[in-house]
Amino acid sequence: MGAEVFCSNNGIKVLAYEKTFLLDYKSAEENALNLVSHGHQDHLPAKYNSENIICSRHTAKILRLRRNKDIKVRRSREVKFLDAGHTIGSRMFLINKEVLYTGDFNTTQKYCGKARPVKCDTLIIDATFGAKKYVFPKYQEVIKEFRDYLEENQKVVICAYSFGKAQEVAYLLDKFRIPFNITAPIQRVHQTLGLKYRCFSDDEHNVIIQHHYEPKQGYKKIAMSGWASEKFYNYALQLDKSFIISSHADYNQLMDFVRKCSPERVYPFGTHAVELSASIRKNLSINAQPLLKNQKTLGNYL
């Protein structure tokens, strides 16, 4: 049975098996299966019916919090959930055992699990760090560097998104047994998800996780991101220090993931979709075509 893939300003649409699958679409449609991979703002629908969203229960909680609207999580026999390892509740979607949509994903074992490759015919894959220059250092080595920095500096604010990076930082601080405080938006996310940390308290502490990048007098300002591999990162955000810790797969991990999925065709999307497509064609000899906005794939069928 044929399938077509579309990419527009609204998101990615898959027409397959006489059904419409909308992948992280900006406006959910009533007569479609609307799949939401995780709770980051750029992946959540701005408009939706309370009963036509397919997502994990944690993503549903974040959607309710951020859109202030109820949602009933539904399921579909055609869609299998797989861990994405990007945030708490992030999921990849395997459609009819043939089409795999990764959403944002990470293959390094972390606080929220990890993504694992599965065999598929068609792979729609995130290419945020799909250029060859993005090869990150080993996670455990950077974590040690992060811990050493905190032990060497008395007062530190750690800048992190209220959902996603803030939970990873809190998990690490708890693991290191370093007392910390958080700003109100992060606290709301933790309350929404029912998260509790041994080393968190409302008292004033030397380590604070904050949801913004404003400086705090007397404190070092740091952050962690895959973009910390870029020379401009510290300067642009006026950071004292940054750590290359990403919630996305790097170039080598992306290529390894594609190889192990062994698809017939690959559709990279995101920042470096063009570069990743070229690498897949050249190095893996797999048909790969970048998904660009307002583009429809032609001549590709399951």
Structure in words:
This protein has helices at 57-67, 139-152, 165-176, 184-193, 232-237, 251-261, 273-284, and strands at 3-8, 11-16, 19-23, 33-35, 53-54, 79-83, 91-95, 99-101, 122-126, 156-159, 181-182, 207-210, 220-224, 241-243, 265-269, 287-288, 295-296. A hairpin with a 7-residue loop joins strand 6 and strand 7 (91-95). 43% of the residues are buried. With 302 residues, the chain is α/β, with parallel strands linked by helices. The strands form three sheets. The protein has a six-stranded mixed beta sheet with strand order 5-4-3-2-1-17, with no helix packed on it. The protein has two domains: 4-133 and 248-288, Metallo-beta-lactamase, Chain A (4-Layer Sandwich); 139-243, Rossmann fold (3-Layer(aba) Sandwich).
Features:
302 residues, Metallo-beta-lactamase, Chain A, Rossmann fold, 6-stranded mixed beta sheet, 7 helices, 22% strand, globular, disordered C terminus
Chain-wise SSE layout:
Layout: E1 3-8, E2 11-16, E3 19-23, E4 33-35, E5 53-54, H1 57-67, E6 79-83, E7 91-95, E8 99-101, E9 122-126, H2 139-152, E10 156-159, H3 165-176, E11 181-182, H4 184-193, E12 207-210, E13 220-224, H5 232-237, E14 241-243, H6 251-261, E15 265-269, H7 273-284, E16 287-288, E17 295-296
CATH class of the largest domain: Alpha Beta
Span between N and C termini? 6 Å
Which blocks of ≥5 consecutive residues have pLDDT under 50? 297-302
CATH architecture tag of the largest domain: 4-Layer Sandwich
| SSE order | EEEEEHEEEEHEHEHEEHEHEHEE
Q: Round the mean pLDDT to the nearest integer and report it.
A: 93
Number of domains as seen in the coordinates: 2
Give the radius of gyration: 20 Å
Total helices: the number is: 7
SS strand fraction? 15-25%
CATH homolog superfamily of the largest domain: Ribonuclease Z/Hydroxyacylglutathione hydrolase-like
**Sheet with the most strands?**
6 strands, mixed
Q: Strand order of the main beta sheet, please?
A: 5-4-3-2-1-17
CATH topology of the largest domain: Metallo-beta-lactamase, Chain A
Helix content: 25-40%
The outline comes out as: globular
Record field, number of beta strands: 17
Structural class of the secondary elements?
Answer: alpha/beta
